[in-house]
Every structure is written in structure tokens, then in C-alpha cells.
Amino acid sequence: MVSIASTKGHQNVSMLGIGAYRPNRVVTNDEVCEVLDSSDEWIFERSGIRNRRFVSGDETPRSMAVAAADRAINSSGIDRAEIGAVILATSTWKTLTPHGAPTVAYDLGINGVAAFDVCAGCAGFGYALSVAADQVRAGSAKYVLVIGLETMSLGLDPTDRGTAFIFGDGAGAVIVGPSEENGISPTVWGSDGENASAIAQQYDLVEYMDRANALQGTDPEVEKVGRLAIRMEGPRVFRWAAITLPKALSNVLEQSGVSTDDIDVFIPHQANSRINDLMKKNLGLAENVPVANDIENTGNTSAASIPLAIEEMLVSGKAKGGQIALLLGFGAGLSYAGQVVKLPPAPVEPSF
Ligand code: UT7
């Protein structure tokens, strides 16, 4: 009988280093409201957002992903030649073909490595972190580079009241690898395709091409359908979040074998500071447990929001390397993914 070889990795894995990149251009609520029928007060009160950042000049999805990843590698202190896989969590790479991770790996000087994208909306980082931890545990890679990257500004309709004020651009990355003690819990994750239309592109690719073809010759109209813009039924997502996420959070704690008293910091996806404050309260986390609030000046950066928020907390001193953090990503799909993790050390080269 033929015996097929298997692999065996390290059961204990952790995030060994983190890096982030924030675009140079800061966009205030007032600037958004030059086009959008809204106000600075409404946006801040409903979402907790004051500013977001948009790419400009030479900045691209590729350059942001590479900058964040390079910082994560340098912070981890590992030899980049030992990275066995690159996972890029994104929904806003400019092309579906080719996907982004191989070119990012090439730019990082590790061409040839296994490289693929994970597309799970705002839960993307949690999904990618889970796959990376499993890869190291299974022995299919020694170190895995996980990048959360979004360029939400490229697919935004600046006049849409449901999305124009929420989203921002940025990238955050971590190195996942073996560690003495375990630093990444089992993942609690799931999806709800029945409600997937609550966050969706306005047209799918076929509809978009049909409309563009039908409107050929009328340039302004073609321009109008030129965006594969995202639409979001905010209140519907809010209601789904209120039912689904508390259960997910208690499952994460249960599967991690920790209690709310063990949690030093809470770092949920930065979708809305009201949702995050509610989750903290419902979970019964102590008053003095800090909750990430990177949304205030970074906006909602979808798959990039959790690594960006971790980086912000480490750089500003609100959290420290080695502390126990509760993570939860949620959004399009409608998908979610949560873990309890040990935070990596503060980055050597902060993004701000
Ligand atoms: O990252 C992916 C996951 N996404 C989320 O988790 C998002 C979850 N949802 C949300 O964060 C919130 O639903 C929003 C921040 C998007 C919106 O806040 P809301 O409190 O749910 O507002 P709403 O849509 O229920 O609208 C409330 C009022 C309405 O007016 P009336 O009917 O009360 O008179 C809207 O017409 O605010 C009005 N409105 C606005 N006013 C100014 C809706 N959008 C705007 C706007 N500016 N942009």
C-alpha cells in the first residue's frame, strides 16, 4: 500500500510582528459633506467617525499592502526567506485576475512563495488569520504573512448616504508563526448568505457590462454606471449584528477557555463605534477594558480595520504586546470571524 506523506507543524502559534500603512490624505467629514447630503454632527453621532484616509498620488493598493507587510516582517525579526505563504485579505484589489498576493510577495522580495487572496468582506482579516494559524499548526508553512488591505475609496459613490461617509483606505499586516505559548485561539466564524444582499455591489459584473454596452456613446451615462459601487442597508446590518455577534463573542470566549475577566483589550472591526460600545456592554467587559476606536480617524477600512486598530492601540500605548485581546470581524457575506489572541509587540516603524 502506498503511504502518502503528511506534515506536522507547531500547535502553539502567535502573531510575531505587526505593521500598518495609512494613506497620507486625511478626509474630514466636512469634505465628505461637500458632495454628500449629510453633516459632520450626524456622521460623528451615528458612526463615531471624524476623519478617514483616502489614497492619493503614488499610493496604490499594491504599495499600501507592501508597505504594511514590510513593516510587519521587520517588526517580527524573522528572515523573510522563511515565509511560506502570503495571504491577502481584501475585497478591493483592482483586478480579480490576477489576484493580489503574488505581486505583493514579488515586491517584498519573496517571489515564488504560496500566495493567495481571501475575500470575506470586513471579516477577511479574521478568516485569513485563522487559515494562517492552521497552516503553521499543520506544518504547511513555517511563517505566514497575513495582510488586510482595502482601497474602499475606489468603489465609493460619494453621493450615497448609506456608504460615502463610512469607508476609508489602509493596510495592516501580521506575521504568524510558531511560539512557546499559544497566542491564537480557535476561530469562531460563520456566514449568512440569506442576508448577503444587505452589503453588496450595486451591479454584478454581468449587469455592469450590459448597462455599459447599452449606454455606449453616451459618455456621461457610461460614467454613471462606471462604478461597481458598494451599497449597504446599514440598519439591516445593524440588526443582524445585534443578534449574531453577541453569540459569536461568547462562543469565542468559550472555545478559547478564557473568561471576560481575562480580556485586557477588545478590538472589534471598526464599523461603528456605537456597535462596539454595545458589544462591550452586553459582553460584561469591565469598564476599564479599552475598546479600539481607530474608526474615529481612520473610518471603516473593512478587512484592514482590525490590524490597523491593533497597531493604533500598540503605538498609542492603549494596549501592550503580550496582552490578551478579543477580536471580532464582521460584514459582507454576511460573515464574521473572532479569536482571542496575544498581541504582538508594538511595531518598530509605526504608521503615524
Ligand atoms: O463594515 C461592514 C459592517 N457594517 C456595519 O456594521 C454597519 C452597520 N450599520 C451602521 O453602522 C448604521 O446603520 C449607519 C451608521 C450606516 C447608519 O446609521 P443609522 O442610525 O442606522 O441611520 P438610519 O439609516 O437608520 O437613518 C436614520 C435617519 C433617517 O432619517 P429619519 O427617517 O429618521 O428622518 C435617514 O434618512 O438619518 C437619515 N440619514 C442620514 N442623514 C444624514 C441616513 N443616512 C444619512 C446621512 N446623513 N448619511
Give structural attributes.
3 domains, binds oxa(dethia)-CoA, 4-stranded mixed sheet, 352 residues, Peroxisomal Thiolase, Chain A, domain 1
| Parts with pLDDT < 50 across at least 5 consecutive residues | none
The CATH homologous superfamily of the largest domain corresponds to Thiolase/Chalcone synthase
Q: Radius of gyration over alpha carbons?
A: 20 Å
Order of helices and strands: EEHHEHEHEHEEEEHHEHEHHHEE
Number of helices: 11
Task: Give the tally of structural domains.
Answer: 3
Which distinct ligands sit in these coordinates? oxa(dethia)-CoA
| Total beta strands | 13
Mean pLDDT: 95
Report the helical percentage: 25-40%
Oligomer state of the chains in this structure: single chain
Supply the CATH class of the largest domain.
Answer: Alpha Beta
CATH architecture of the largest domain: 3-Layer(aba) Sandwich
* Overall spatial form: globular
What is the CATH topology classification name of the largest domain? Peroxisomal Thiolase, Chain A, domain 1
Q: What composes the largest sheet?
A: 5 strands, mixed
Keywords: Acyltransferase, Cytoplasm, Fatty acid biosynthesis, Fatty acid metabolism, Lipid biosynthesis, Lipid metabolism, Transferase
InterPro entries: ACP_syn_III_C, ACP_syn_III_N, FabH, Thiolase-like
Domain Beta-ketoacyl-[acyl-carrier-protein] synthase III C-terminal: 253-342
Pfam family, one: ACP_syn_III_C
